[in-house]
Structures are given as C-alpha cells and as structure tokens.
Amino acid sequence: MRIAIACSRFNDLITDRLLAGARDTLERHGVDRASITETWVPGAFELPLVAKALAASGEVDAVICLGAVIRGATGHYDLVAGQCAAGIQSAQLETGVPIVFGVLTTETIDQAIERAGAKMGNKGSEVAVAAIEMVDLLRQLPKPAAR
Predict the structure, then answer these.
(1) Of 120, 127, 12, which Cα lies nearest the Cα of 65?
(2) CB contact at 8 A, 133 and 139
(3) Ramachandran region of residue 101, left (φ > 0), alpha (ψ -120 to 50) or beta?
(4) For 47-84, how does the pLDDT look when each residue is reduced to its tens digit (9 = 90+)?
(5) How far is CA 18 from its chain centroid?
(6) Active-site residue numbers?
(7) What pLDDT does residue 75 have?
(8) In whole angstroms, what is the distance from residue 128 CA to residue 73 CA?
(9) 3-state helix, strand, coil in the chain (%, to 5)
(10) CB-side exposure of 71: number of CA atoms within 13 Å?
(11) Is the pLDDT of residue 133 over 90?
(12) Using CB atoms within 10 A of its CB, is residue 116 exposed (0-12), middle (13-18) or buried (19+)?
C-alpha cells in the first residue's frame, strides 16, 4: 500500500504530532516506511491542491491530509476550514483516490492539543486507519465495466 501524507506547516506544534501519529499507525498496520510519502504545505488552505496532485499522480493508493485550523479573533477560520474541507472532498471525488480529512477544526489551541495525542487521542492516527480501510474497501468493490 502506498500512502501520501500532506501536512500543513501552519500550527506545526499540532501538525507535527498528527504526522507522528499517522506515520506510527501506518507502520504498525504494515505499511512499509518507504511506501509513505510526506509533503509539507504552507497551510490548510493549500492542502486540497497538493492532495489532488498526489492522488492524480497514480503513485499512491490514498492521501492523508493533516492540518489544524484554530478559531481566532478574525474571520480567517470560517474562510479556511470550510474551503479546505470542500476542496479535499472535491479532489477525492474527481480522482477516485481516497483523500482522508485529518484537519482539526477547533475553537482553542487546548482543544487541538487534546486531539493531537493528548486526552482525545490522535486524529492523525485515526485518519491513517481510515485511509487503510478505504484502500482495502475500494480494492474489494467491483471495477467499472469496460465500454
């Protein structure tokens, strides 16, 4: 299984932990370290474009998107979180390759920390399992008929 991880540098205190969780879980589930590609993007808003490029390359079976969008005093959160989610969904549907949404959208930094390896588990680990599950599921589904 070949997995790409696109990870946002913005809020890297959080995303570094998400990446570590995803990487560890993939390896524990038998994905060879050499079959994991890691790519860094500036922020969550850039994730959909890179995820689509990775998915369309034909070199990976799934893409994991990791990021953290934390609500602040400006409207930045509202613009970035929704567009990131919509872009990732669109890229997944256009390419037919699973692109898993591992972008935290929290009200506070404390909530993000809780979801990046503290009280609430590690979302990076959770989405790594989802990526594996989706690849396995798609491999089992009937292939489209040739025309």
Answers:
(1) 127
(2) no
(3) beta
(4) 999 999 999 999 999 999 999 999 876 777 888 989 99
(5) 9
(6) 76
(7) 74
(8) 32
(9) 55, 25, 25
(10) 7
(11) yes
(12) buried
Identify any residues that bridge with 5 across adjacent strands, giving them in sequence order.
38, 64
Phi, psi of 9 (to 5 degrees): -75, -30
pLDDT tens digit string along 7-35?
A: 999 999 999 999 999 999 999 999 999 99
69 close to 46: Cβ distance less than 8 angstroms: no
DSSP 9-78: STTHHHHHHHHHHHHHHHHHTT--GGGEEEEEESSGGGHHHHHHHHHHTSS-SEEEEEEEEE--SSTHHH
Amino acid at 80: V
Mean pLDDT of the chain: 94
